[in-house]
Amino acid sequence: MEKRKKTDVYLCSAVPEGGILHYALSESGELTLLDTLPLPSPNYLVFDGDRAFATVSEAFPDTGEGGVVRLSVAPDGSLSRTGEIMPTGGSGACHLAVDGDDIYVANYGAGSVTKIGGATVEHEGNGPDPIRQEAPHCHSTFFSPDKKYLLVCDLGLDTVFVYDRELSEVSRAKVPDGAGCRHLVFSKDGRFVYVENEMGCSVSVFSWKDGRLLYRSTLPTRTYVPHDGPDKGSAIKLSRSGRRLYITNRGENEAVVLSCRGEKLRVIGRAPTGGDEPRDLALLAGEKYAVVTNQFGNSFRLYRVKGARKNRLVPLRTFDLPGAICVTERER
After folding, report:
1. CB 329 within 8 Å of CB 8
2. Which of 141, 173, 235, 240 is the most exposed place for a label (fewest CB within 10 A)?
3. How far is CA 34 from CA 5, 11, 22, 25, 68, in A?
4. Which helix (H) or strand (E) holds 265?
5. Plot region of 286 (φ>0 → left; ψ -120 to 50 → alpha; else → beta)
6. How confident is the model over 105-135, as pLDDT tens digits?
7. In this predicted model, what pLDDT tens digit does every residue of 54-93 receive, in sequence order?
8. What is the sign, positive or negative, of the torsion defined by CA atoms of 194, 175, 226, 277?
9. Which residues of 4-14 are buried (b: 16+ CB within 10 A; e: fewer)?
10. Strand order across the 244-250 sheet
11. How would you list the strands of the sheet with 112-115, edge to edge?
């Protein structure tokens, strides 16, 4: 008889007295808090086998430099710190990608990308928005499916940069002016890249081949219903089937479900997030459930994913959590 996998859910509380909270998710959709690792203002978390890594945007207050905290994962899923915090070579560390001994970090404030223990590349220039794009702002780092390339979204320059693993530039491609690219995912077959634009509240589609991106189209994802505050896209996640994209929109404070067929995208579902400034989204337990974090709402919402087209996010419960910013799962 096959043993059922256990689903651990981890949430970052990005406040000075915060940390990383570890929950167990049951088959019936119950979330139970198991333990908390105290850590001042963690804002992103990734797993690599029995290791984990978290970014802290201002780990070194004297210099304003960000840091990466190395964590070990116990058999029961609990986390513990190992070693000294690693400087990121710039301020505002906000995202990272890990593969073996190679760790890459995006420094939003410094507009740079760093390979820990290796090179730091500082971007130059500005975008058309004088407030949000007065300088480069690297927002994320992602590996290509074959791990040969690193893709970096720079919100300040409306540009996705492609580097090799030593941070030598291979190519670059632009989203529409003022769109402010934030995060991205590859299509399941690796032929397309879907880029979530924060300022444009849209998704841009690129074809991908041999380290080069070719712009195809951009789809707005906002509803244009009147509300307070600007619209800002944030997270983007792809389903295991490769047929659905799940994103979050701040301002309208909703999760959006898109159908994707290669370069063709279409909005097929929407759900309120139950709080202000939804920052991250994760699909859980074989995509039976989902969680969205509401950073300024100091909460996160658990959904059941339903519908023949996996287009319905049915709210189950909303939990309080100060500065809820990042959510990820790990099965064991």
Report:
1. yes
2. 240
3. 17, 12, 6, 10, 24
4. strand 264-272
5. left
6. 999 999 999 999 999 999 999 999 999 999 9
7. 999 989 988 889 999 999 999 999 999 998 999 999 999 9
8. positive
9. eeebbbbbbbb
10. 232-238, 244-250, 254-261, 264-272
11. 93-99, 102-107, 112-115, 120-122
